[in-house]
């Protein structure tokens, strides 16, 4: 368990219940509202089933709800008066540590956690204030943190009294509409560090079940309250839920938990609560923690395709599937789903082609099972465009490339070379399709108008083919591009529906045109008179083929001055114009090209950042992992030249390591599966040591002469990787 869980191991849950039944500690009058109810284990496990009206969603969205929900609020019961402060509690703990008498601390814990009312009495900032807004939970977070931080260092009977009180509170509070005090209690109980210990999982599961069964309006409050939790504690809560799911799927000691058939609701309940934290995380910019912190790598080891097919068949119905909550599925697992879904589509399309051929009594040809692309190197773009346009029905078949006049058999190398050459040619500034922005090191769509946007469709199809055939491309699009590519993730049936249009903000423009975005940011923060000093209107100008053209950001925009009052609207319309409207036709063609290959429900599982990683890999380099997975031809890993090589490479700066990777593979990014998926090979070349290293990017192969010393190897390698533009093609 987390947070000293190993030190404070509890006995099994049933033994714990038996122990506290035997002790029967008399605390006050039996009729007192704080009297502990001690249930047996059967009562704990037989709580009512989770409400049937809880909607299982693929993504939880809180944005669709109003800021203040008008649902009737049940009256809050009056709270007991509790006057203990943080300092009082800390003094009690210090006295108990020095004297060994923990009675005062024990009384505080057993009373505080006995019911939801007592939890609010202790931790509510002001017992007389309702705190019915999403902005302030009314929880004294400092006091909660101090109490929980001290809990795991108290004697076992104190810790058991807390769990006993939580059981009592969960049983008492099960029925009836939820008040904001109930929600506060749930929010506080979720943070209990005892739930990192597997011996408490039965109680934890019932707490999660009750929270999962709350109404959408109540979830709305919990989401907004959760975003106020500190980063460290927020991460602990997420990790605790992920650990709970993992250990329920693959328990180290199965006898610790009830049989799976009796607690099928454990994992759905935990996942739904985790979805609330994911929603809270997405409300903050930048997010509290990375979206990758919600990944559960344990799911990489379950039958993901069964999950995917269940989700396809039953959608977001009452049948649970992890695909309804894609934030929990790692990018590696999503890649597996997409690859297998692609393979099944390939097999299905190929089988149908074979059946059609046989039904017409024609002789089957193996080539009909592939997307065969034949191109001339001298007419690479036009030939590729013609081939993909003619063979649109075959795009979902396995790709096989042939260069006309060359006796090459495509075992993967020619396909990769075709992608490399084509992408390099299309993105060249002279081609005019994309503009390269040096400040952001990325490409963006040219806004120049033309009669035919088919080449943009070709680029989209290329990206789709790369994902479909598991090829990593050396493309530099900003994150905004992938957000637009998933807007919507499934191509609409109505062709009049706009595609590739998404909500964009100034931060999106910063990632493409930082200088312009900075100027607009300065406009927003300008303290003088905007109208008089800037003398701007809701009209913008763009140069197209040497001609300056004007565009109104809104009707009669040329007559509407930009003022201090409307400058936010001006900036938003300008950003929307640059990233959506001015390139709509170009991006729509690109969108349809991508989805002509990658149309799949699996895209619903992906975030824009994950699409980018699938297309062009991850920027995170681990050269030690590359060293472990490298294969050798003509060398042994113990040879002196190889040892020199890795000493030099591991000592390189990140910039030089990226140059090496780009030199050897054609891209400085890493595939989803990590360095091992590169299949990197170092081959010995029997040439003079005066020669520089040579790379075959199609095969991720580096040819290294047997340099005599480390200094010479380092010098030649740096020269080679720093001057590697162009291809030596025979």
TrEMBL record:
Pathway(s) per entry: Protein modification; protein ubiquitination
SUPFAM superfamilies recorded: Hect, E3 ligase catalytic domain
Coiled coil: none
Single biological process term from Gene Ontology: protein polyubiquitination
Pfam families: HECT
Active site (UniProt): 698
Described function: E3 ubiquitin-protein ligase which accepts ubiquitin from an E2 ubiquitin-conjugating enzyme in the form of a thioester and then directly transfers the ubiquitin to targeted substrates.
Name of the featured protein: Probable E3 ubiquitin-protein ligase HECTD2
Provenance organism: Corythaixoides concolor (Grey go-away-bird)
Gene name linked to the record: Hectd2
